[in-house]
TrEMBL record:
InterPro entries: Plipid/glycerol_acylTrfase, Tafazzin. It is a peripheral membrane protein. One of its GO terms (molecular function) is O-acyltransferase activity. GO terms for cellular component: membrane. SUPFAM superfamilies: Glycerol-3-phosphate (1)-acyltransferase. The chain crosses the membrane at residues 7-28. It catalyses: 1'-[1,2-diacyl-sn-glycero-3-phospho],3'-[1-acyl-sn-glycero-3-phospho]-glycerol + a 1,2-diacyl-sn-glycero-3-phosphocholine = a cardiolipin + a 1-acyl-sn-glycero-3-phosphocholine. GO terms for biological process: phospholipid metabolic process. It comes from the Bacteria. It holds the Pfam family Acyltransferase. This is Phospholipid/glycerol acyltransferase domain-containing protein. Residues 48-169 form the Phospholipid/glycerol acyltransferase domain. It is found in: Membrane. It comes from Candidatus Schekmanbacteria bacterium GWA2_38_11.
Length: 244
């Protein structure tokens, strides 16, 4: 009997994942105008960490499908784990169930949660994952500083790290809004894997983690397409100055 229930649960999970990922892809690619660059930089492997800048609470629903759709239909394990604010995605039983199926990891805002970091360290070697190195959404659209937690995760697990730059998402879901908008222009840029080998011989301490997260943010800032060069160049210089 337990085997039957497990099979039913797995089937429901599969249908739910594929349906919602497809809906997300249609929303961003068809109902909005999303351009994707650098998808060839993403290896279809486990121990893969995608690190985008953070603009809205639905950024994960953009990054995952743009990275792995339609391959995720035949290989659901490609669906990335991602942190999600507990107060937004786990505040009632139904939403908590849906979020768990989306492979969301509940995170309490403003809290340094070692349990969450340990959970990510356990999951990442055998999966793909999205994490937001700034730790919170940008109110202005400008890049913030990287948090030490993502540096610690990279130091411990040593994953393949792909920097990701998002443009235009603030127009899709402005802060304070709960209904996503359509017919907006969105850009997603996947960078080449970042080499952190220079940091792995350094002590396992906060200063090292911050250096790693600093390199992450510089790599994100350097991602640009024609028309975005001026803004991203300013971001790179500002971030380099903040980590000196």
């Amino acid at each position: 009997m337990k085997t039957i229930f497990k099979l039913i649960n797995n089937f429901i999970s599969f249908i739910w994942i594929i349906s919602t990922v497809t809906i997300a892809w249609i929303f961003f690619k068809v109902l909005n105008r999303t351009k994707v660059y650098g998808k060839k930089n993403i290896p279809l492997k486990t121990n893969l960490l995608l690190l985008p800048n953070h603009l809205t609470m639905i950024d994960s629903f953009l990054v995952g499908p743009m990275a792995f759709y339609p391959k995720v239909i035949l290989k659901p394990s490609l669906l990335p784990w991602s942190p999600a604010a507990e107060e937004n995605f786990f505040n009632n039983p139904i939403l908590a169930w849906m979020s768990a199926k989306w492979k969301a990891i509940p995170v309490k805002r403003g809290r340094k949660d070692l349990e969450v970091l340990n959970r990510m360290s356990e999951l990442l070697p055998h999966s793909t994952m999205i994490n937001f190195p700034e730790g919170t959404r940008s109110r202005t659209g400008k890049l913030g500083k990287g948090r030490p937690g993502v540096g610690k995760l990279i130091y411990d697990v040593r994953p393949i790290v792909i920097p990701v730059r998002l443009f235009g998402m603030k127009k899709v879901l402005p802060i304070g809004s709960y209904i996503p908008r359509i017919f907006k222009k969105i850009t997603v840029i996947f960078g080449k894997p970042i080499d952190f080998s220079e940091f792995y011989t350094l002590p396992d301490e906060k200063e090292t983690w911050l250096k790693i997260s600093g390199k992450v943010m510089e790599s994100i800032a350097e991602l640009k397409v024609e028309g975005e060069r001026k803004n991203t160049s300013l971001d790179v210089e500002r971030l380099r100055g903040s980590y000196r």
